[in-house]
Predict the 3D structure of the following.
Amino acid sequence: MTSGQLNSEELSALVIEALDDVKAQDIVKLDVRDMTTVTDFMIVASGTSNRHVQALVDNVAEKAKAAGHRPAGVEGEAGGEWVLLDLQDALVHVMLPKVREFYNLEKLWSLGSASGKAASEH
């Protein structure tokens, strides 16, 4: 990692702040460092509509770029019900509440954590 780039803790804090700025609902940060090498944190949040989901993702991507952390990719923008923003050290899942309830990522990723530190509600 080059100096000037955020570490995963700083990046996840920036993501949560960016989500808060645009009124995301039910933001949860999952520490998955002990469960996968793909990412350090997963941040899950809900938007109230397809447009709100897109606005949340756009704000996170913009703040991350401004901090020198370019997104590696975005999936799901066409539908707007579940958008995944890949920031490498943090994966950001923004969903409509019905989609979030159906997939229940918080429970799925908390199963592997015996330490109980996987889910921390913001």
Residues 8-111 form a domain with the Beta Polymerase; domain 2 fold (CATH 3.30.460.10). Residues 38 and 88 are 7 Å apart (CA to CA).
